[in-house]
Design a protein that fits this description.
- The chain is built from 9 helices and 10 strands.
- By secondary structure, the protein is of the alpha/beta class.
- It has one domain: Luciferase-like domain (TIM Barrel, Alpha-Beta Barrel), CATH 3.20.20.
- The strands form 2 sheets. The chain has an 8-stranded parallel beta barrel, surrounded by 4 helices.
- It starts with a strand and ends in a 9-residue tail after the last helix.
Length: about 300
């Protein structure tokens, strides 16, 4: 199981040095969040808290995730660059494909694209997008991205996006393309990940292994049901993936704030592929925290860090 870091609570000016140190310690990846705007007033409920409140405040500084990751790429050589999560409905897939391909090429093929449909209806409205269309836009965009990244003269005809055959070069260095991990914890979101994703990334930050076990179990149940009904879906999920290779691999990535060594051991047994941790509560504490967390994690069998 690989270890990543969730940099949502790190000041951008401190991110390059922290990512470089994480790389030296053997962490596999870093992940950053995405929003374009936070409206002054909104009624939408945030899915990551029990009461639906937005935990970061309306005046939280927002930075474009791909620009931040480009800065990380410049400061590192191996650590992978992830989004947790990129709001796919907010952009046209031609724009997303271009920026992700650019980052992947310039970083040497290190991008992991964690995506979601979004929860903040008022943000979509501010961009002139009907919130009711967000699921369809995300699903179509994921299909269009793969065509743009893999086909010689890609085209797309959908309800929300359409474009005639285009030249799209360069292709990403990652083959066949950067992995697209769909986020969200509802049954609909899990099905979407199985149908359109190369993996699943949790919608919120888990605090217990029981939460993760329930979701991984549900993924497996849905995959079985989809297979029985002849629906397209992932070939293998969680601990059910023994022997799976290539396109048959369906990665499970879990955001987990500060898992203990026992938590990590249990997550390994669940078949989780990647844990993205955030074992600090303020930017200044992050450098010491990743040293402490990495040392503890390295003692857990099945965890890949510093090895």
């Amino acid at each position: 199981m690989k270890l990543g870091l969730n940099l949502v609570r790190v000041r951008p000016d401190r991110i390059p040095a922290l990512a470089a140190r994480a790389e030296a310690l053997g962490y596999e990846s870093v992940f950053v969040p995405d929003h374009v705007v936070v409206p002054v007033a909104f009624d939408s409920r945030y899915p990551g808290t029990s009461d639906g409140s937005f935990p970061y405040g309306g005046d939280v500084p927002l930075f474009d995730p791909l620009v931040v990751l480009a800065m990380v790429a410049q400061a590192t050589t191996r650590i992978r660059l992830g989004t947790a999560i990129y709001l796919l409905p907010l952009r046209h897939p031609l724009v997303t494909a271009r920026t992700i391909a650019t980052l992947d090429v310039l970083s040497g093929g290190r991008v992991i694209l964690g995506v979601g449909v979004g929860w903040l209806a008022e943000e979509l409205e501010a961009l002139g997008i009907d919130p009711a269309s967000r699921v369809g836009r995300a699903e179509e965009a994921s299909v269009a991205l793969r065509r743009l990244w893999t086909e010689t003269e890609p085209s797309f005809e959908g309800r929300h996006f359409s474009f005639a055959p285009v030249h799209f070069e360069p292709k990403p260095l990652t083959r066949p393309h950067p992995p697209i991990l769909f986020g969200g914890d509802s049954d609909a979101a899990l099905r979407r990940a199985l149908r359109f994703g190369d993996g699943w990334i949790s919608g919120g930050v888990a605090t217990t292994v029981a939460e993760v076990a329930a979701l991984v179990g549900r993924l497996g149940e849905l995959r079985s049901t989809m297979g029985e009904q002849g629906e397209p879906g992932a070939a293998a999920v969680g601990g059910d993936r023994a022997g799976a290779r290539g396109a048959d691999r369906f990665e499970i990535t879990v955001l987990f704030a500060d898992p203990s060594p026992d938590d990590l051991d249990r997550l390994v047994s669940l078949g989780v592929d990647r844990v993205v941790a955030m074992p600090w509560d303020r930017s200044s504490a992050a450098p010491a925290a990743i040293e402490r967390f990495g040392e503890a994690a390295a003692a857990v069998d099945g965890v890949e860090i510093g090895r």
